[in-house]
Design a protein that fits this description.
The structure holds two protein chains of two kinds. Chain A is an alpha/beta fold. Chain A is built from 25 helices and 26 strands. In chain A, the strands form five sheets. Chain A has an eight-stranded mixed β-sheet, with helices on both faces. In chain B, helix 7 packs across helix 17 (400-423) and helix 12 packs across helix 16 (387-395). Classes of the chains: A alpha/beta, B mainly alpha.
């Protein structure tokens, strides 16, 4: 039975990656999975919507005022349909989900509209009826898998609870069902998994368990609130694939909340774009992506780095201004103040209604001027920036190694294990160059950054800054100049600034430490200049970090890093925690400062779209090894290292013209404590069978030079490498 | 003049009114609970016109009634305080006279609240406290005793008789008793009666607050300085240093507190000088703490640092030497003119700091373990900041929320601890008016006369309750935004 299902699933998977999301057709029809979908539905003949949200308004009541979080929101989800809800943080997308679950906390209220689940009004439902529906008819998957699982309970027990409570079956039956879903979510060795505790599983496995739990009772509606944000890209790709397959298999309708347009394109049939508490545009994926009818949707697409964007020739267009706070929303159109097409006297008068876009399938937009705007007008080219030519080598790594010794037993020592965090790292970085370091969590990026900063000292090898070795000098022993030369921009904007110190004070402190300025007056003047540099108003100097938005905090972080005129800046995923529209602005700022100061930028990231956009050279790391290093063009076009290939295919791209090869990596990243023998990637490599003998299992591949400046660590022979096809192809228009 | 009754002329109207209101409150509450069991749970309904509908019908009416009754109850209780202020002496009974004596306290409380509520949006966490009912009740109780202590200790107001003078014939006299002519103080009555030694209980309780309010917060501050100065490096560095300090903290915590006190105040132990050496050790921590705090902040500008650190450390150092130096003990080297003061209850002070510091140490260590992984700590490390700067300026300010809450709770524990010490007569003179000693004396005849022991016990209870409620309010409000 199991085998049969597996086979049928694998049959439906290939070829669906792209064509599915072009929904010119009505969802649930004319699609290869149709029959499988509909037969699970209670009543397939009537096209009654699973979820019908009509003019929903939700407010939160704080001690100061009522804060409207969602206004006039309508959406319909048909059986078997997947609706993507997209928007920046704070736009109310999660609030909609919580509203559907009727779980708004003590100070949240539904203040208007209706939510109908299979025709039944949920706003007036009794708590008992709600309990019955939650978890059995509507299931929700949250962002943090660990937070959704009870750490003190075995997985099996947690899964069995669902049928035990909702279907009142006996333990044996419940166990059988638990085993079935765990097999369904493609976890290896299901019996062992059922018998383990959540902390014994990796993040990806935990999220699979959460998905399994949600599917236990065969819900009609599945709400996914950023289900993959906490996961690595390759794991994300696998989880997304799984959700898609299972949704099809069980005929579940989905409400997929995400900030990632690419992800929505890959998973959903329809999309709803939200801005500041309102739905601004909704329609089928094809209509919205290719024929957008709202300025915000358009601005959103222009601010993400799609293939073809280039930092010099086709820079990203950031959305000007800031997201309005809920109680400071403008009159009329919420997007008005940031909109290129704003017309005073029209857009700032009354509330804008949703209007239908003629000709398309249920495509609506909240724009008064949608007939007047020429949506196909090309982007007004921003000033083309001069390409910078990298100067001489400033930083050089030679066979850098970092091993950590870990005692197996904390109290009595015991066997000591060696964690090889960095293994023979060799590369150089030139003045004014952007070198991207790419890899998933645990690949040794952060260890490398720590070594460079001097927070740790190298086990072996050298770091040369201007030909002076600094690899074994801890930060306390480095000269002020050295410390000021290498600075860092951190990932989490909410963590990068000390919450109890004013913005100006934090920058002045950096100036004090670096010995800049003779007295407080001079330092204050320099601090204000730095605020100008990162395009923040000078008044921010006296603000506390909590009064700043994420993007603004990140700008302060950048200003602080450049306080001592840093020559090398390590940017550790500086924009990954920011909203897309802010990402573009912060990235461009970083690029501008780099151009101006001729800074060497080491850009650590897992987001290959942004790497492709801004990096001059790319270094791909896996389990402490550099598996590929070359210029951006060399790395992003074949021949690839098999891991690079998988990474490229895993990145969701929000462009309907792009065709991707689909490579899903099986298994988990091995632990650095216990790396596989031979090639580090051999456990997950799809090309392993092409290598003769047991070379991959026994020998670490040598570094091979494929082209000048392009090196790869792989056993594949030249002919196989040369025959590789590009992962991403843009269809000709 | 006659002995005073409890409520005097005031009671004629207020007592029955209070009884009726309280009874009605109780009845409504019972009926409501009964009705609620039978009815469906309340869900909010949104009407088509966009309005919300809450509860209606009988239950809704009872809800409203209960609110009015509770307000009436509060108004009546307020009347007990306000009305006597305009009545002539003696006509408002014992309660009336007590509220009249406390007039400065009422004025101070009203002024504090009026100002705080007026400016609460500008006062940070303290201002937020006035959004929480629980927090406000706690704050009233605490500030009541703070003001009582201030007015008694500084201005010698409120107290009616000398708390040590004995008046013959008033031994264990009942509340409201007349004082014989010639011996009366400010007023001719013992408001709360006389104790076993014929002293005025009201004055003793009021005077006792000075001891608690002066010692408890100060000892808690010292315990925090010790705990923070050791807890930060333990959490920040970890390793063997942490293991050793944590073990020492556990060792102290594992030792029975009362036994420790008994040991510390035993004359033989005092003779060996152990408490004095402990004081020298423990009192040094605030010096180290403040010195390091200033140095890490200004070490890049030596001139500015010296200008600040030298006078501060100079004054603190002198205070430190005066505090640990006492004639007749092992540490007695300062000339008499330089010794600013002697702490009479040094032993009590040292013991309280000693047993409180390990708990603070553990809290600070835990918070540091969490906060040291933050990016802003890493940012400070990558710009080459010293470890102590990171601990004191990057980590400590962000641990302040839980620490402030714990500070309030800990003053409460310290208050109880001081009461316990007084009760056992440890380190305090038997004449001391502090609440612990007074309770202990009242205890001896508790079965015959309950009135000498009750007032100090109620005082202790209300202060500690106030501190706990205050901590609850702070915790609740600091979590909201």
């Amino acid at each position: 039975m199991d085998c049969a299902r597996k086979a049928s699933r694998t049959d439906t998977v290939p070829g669906q990656t792209r064509d599915l999301t072009h929904s010119d057709e009505v969802p649930g029809q004319a699609r290869d999975g149709t029959t499988e979908r509909t037969k699970h539905l209670a009543n397939p003949t009537t096209a009654e919507p699973i979820l019908e949200i009509d003019r929903l308004s939700i407010s939160f009541f704080t001690r100061l005022r009522e804060i409207p979080a969602v206004m006039d929101f309508s959406a319909t989800i048909m059986p078997g349909e997947a609706l993507g809800l997209v928007g920046e943080s704070g736009c109310g997308k999660s609030t909609v989900a919580l509203g559907v679950m009727q779980d708004l906390g003590t100070n949240g209220r539904i203040v208007g509209g209706s939510i109908k689940f299979k025709g039944e009004e949920m706003n007036t439902m009794s708590p008992a009826r709600l309990r019955e529906i939650r978890g059995s008819k509507i299931a929700m998957i949250y962002q943090e898998p660990m937070a959704s699982l009870n750490p003190a309970m075995k997985i099996g027990k947690q899964l069995m609870e669902v049928p035990l409570i909702h279907d009142k079956v006996n333990e044996k039956e419940a166990y059988a069902r638990a085993l079935e879903v765990v097999t369904d979510v493609k976890l290896p060795d299901p019996k062992r998994i059922l018998n383990s505790y959540p902390h014994q599983l990796s993040g990806g496995q935990q999220q699979r368990i959460v998905i399994a739990m949600a599917l236990m009772s065969k819900p009609s509606l599945l709400i996914l609130d950023e289900p993959t944000t906490a996961l690595d890209v390759t794991v994300e790709a696998a989880v997304v694939q799984l959700v898609k397959d299972l949704g099809r298999k069980y005929g579940t309708s989905m409400l997929f909340i995400s900030h990632n347009l690419g992800l929505v394109l890959e998973t959903c049939d329809r999309i709803c774009v939200m801005y500041s508490g309102e739905a601004v545009e909704r329609g089928s994926i094809g209509d919205v992506f290719d024929d957008m009818q709202h300025p915000y949707t358009q601005a959103l697409f222009r601010s993400i780095p799609l293939p073809g964007a280039d930092k010099n020739d086709r820079p990203l267009v950031a959305i000007p201004g800031n997201f309005p706070l809920p109680h400071e929303r403008p009159k009329g159109c919420n997007f008005g103040p940031r909109c290129d097409y704003f017309q005073a006297g029209r857009c700032d008068q009354d509330m804008i209604p949703m209007v239908r876009v003629a000709g398309d399938d249920r495509h609506q937009t909240r724009c008064l001027r949608n007939h007047e705007i020429d949506w196909n007008a090309p982007v007004t080219a921003a000033a083309t920036k001069i390409k910078h030519v990298p100067g001489q080598v400033v930083l050089k790594m030679e066979n850098l190694k970092k091993y950590y010794e870990v005692a197996a037993n904390a109290l009595f020592g015991g066997d000591r294990k060696v964690v090889k965090a960095n293994e023979t790292l060799s590369f150089e970085a030139r003045e004014g160059e952007t070198l991207a370091i790419v890899g998933e969590s645990g690949c040794g990026k952060s260890t490398f950054a720590k070594l460079l900063m001097g927070l740790e000292t190298a086990t072996d090898g050298q770091i040369l800054l201007d030909n002076i070795s600094i690899g074994d000098v801890p930060i306390e022993k480095r000269s002020t100049k050295n410390v000021a030369d290498i600075q860092m921009v951190f990932q989490n904007p909410f963590d990068t600034l000390n919450p109890s110190m004013s913005v100006g004070r934090q920058i002045i402190r950096a100036l004090e430490i670096f010995g800049i300025g003779k007295n407080d007056t001079e330092r204050r003047a320099r601090m204000l200049e730095l605020l100008d540099l990162v395009k923040l108003p000078r008044a921010f100097a006296d603000r506390m970090p909590r009064q700043l938005s994420g993007g603004q905090k990140q700008r302060v972080g950048i200003a602080r890093a450049f306080a001592g005129d840093a020559r090398i800046v390590v940017a550790d995923e500086p924009v990954s925690a920011l909203d897309v529209s802010v990402q573009a602005a912060v990235t461009d700022l970083l690029m501008d400062i780099q151009r101006e100061h001729n800074t060497t930028l080491l850009f650590i990231s897992h987001d290959l779209s942004i790497v492709r956009y801004l990096a001059d050279r790319v270094m791909v790391m896996y389990l402490g090894h550099v598996v590929e290093l070359g210029t951006t063009d060399q790395v992003f076009s074949p021949p690839y290292h098999p891991y690079t290939e998988a990474l490229l295919s895993a990145v969701p791209i929000a462009d309907t013209r792009v065709t991707k090869k689909h490579i899903v990596l099986e298994g988990e990243i091995p632990s650095a404590m216990n790396p596989p023998p031979g090639c580090p990637f051999q456990t997950r490599c799809g090309w392993k069978s092409q290598v003769p003998g047991d070379l991959c299992d026994t020998q670490v591949p040598p570094v091979r030079l494929l082209a000048p400046g392009h090196q790869v660590k792989c056993h594949l022979d030249d002919a196989t490498l040369a025959a590789m096809e590009p992962v991403i192809q843009i269809a000709a228009e | 003049m006659d002995p005073l009754t409890w409520t005097g002329g005031l009671g004629a109207f207020l007592n029955p009114a209070l009884a009726i209101t309280a009874a009605l409150c109780g009845i409504v509450l019972v009926v409501q609970t009964g009705l609620r069991m039978g009815s469906a749970a309340v869900t909010l309904q949104s009407n088509p016109d966009g309005t919300l509908q809450g509860r209606g019908g009988v239950l809704g009416a009872l809800d409203t009634a209960l609110i009015y009754l509770v307000w009436a109850l509060v108004a009546l209780l307020l009347a007990y305080i306000v009305v006597p202020l305009v009545m002539p002496y003696g006509s408002a009974g014992i309660l009336g006279e007590i509220t009249r004596r406390l007039l400065p306290v009422w004025i101070a409380l009203v002024a504090t609240f009026a100002l705080s509520i007026r400016f609460k949006r500008r006062l940070g966490l303290y201002g937020k406290l006035f959004d929480s009912t629980v927090g406000m009740i706690g704050f009233v109780l605490v500030m009541f005793w703070v003001y009582v202590a201030a007015f008694v200790g500084v201005f010698d107001m409120i107290v009616t008789h000398d708390y040590l003078s004995q008046v013959s014939g008033l031994k264990n006299a009942l509340p409201g008793v007349m004082v014989p002519d010639g011996t009366q103080g400010v007023i001719p009555h013992y408001l709360l009666g006389g104790d076993n030694l014929a002293r005025d209980i009201f004055s003793r309780v009021m005077a006792g607050s000075v001891f608690v309010i002066a010692i408890a917060p100060l000892a808690t501050i010292f315990a925090f300085m010790v705990g923070i100065t050791l807890g930060l490096p333990a959490g920040y560095y970890g390793g063997k240093f942490d293991t050793a300090l944590s073990f020492a903290a556990n060792l102290i915590l594992a030792f029975p507190v009362i036994l420790l006190f008994y040991l510390l105040v035993t004359p033989e132990i005092v003779q060996t000088g152990i408490p004095s050496y402990m004081a020298a050790f423990l009192f040094a921590f605030p010096l180290i703490f403040i010195g390091v705090l200033i140095n890490t902040r200004y070490y890049t500008q030596p001139a500015k640092r010296n200008a600040i650190i030298l006078p501060v450390l100079g004054i603190l150092g002198w205070l430190y030497l005066s505090a640990i130096n006492a004639s007749g003990t092992v540490i007695d080297f300062l000339p008499a003119w330089a010794d600013l003061f002697d702490i009479s209850v040094l032993v009590v002070f040292v013991s309280v700091v000693f047993v409180n510091a390990p708990t603070v140490f553990r809290i600070v260590r835990g918070l540091t373990l969490d906060l040291r992984t933050r990016d802003y700590v890493a940012a400070a490390q990558t710009r080459g900041e010293g470890a102590w700067y990171i601990m004191l300026w990057e980590i400590l300010p962000n641990a302040r929320g839980p620490l402030i809450v714990d500070f309030c709770l800990r003053i409460g524990y310290t208050t109880i601890l001081l009461g316990t010490l007084g009760f056992f007569g440890l380190g305090l003179s038997s004449e001391s008016p502090d609440w612990g000693t007074t309770i202990n004396e009242g205890r001896k005849l508790l079965l015959i006369y309950i009135h000498p022991a009750l007032p100090p016990a109620m005082a202790l209870l209300s202060l500690v309750l106030g501190l706990n409620l205050l901590a609850d309010g702070l915790r609740e409000e600091s979590l909201k935004d």
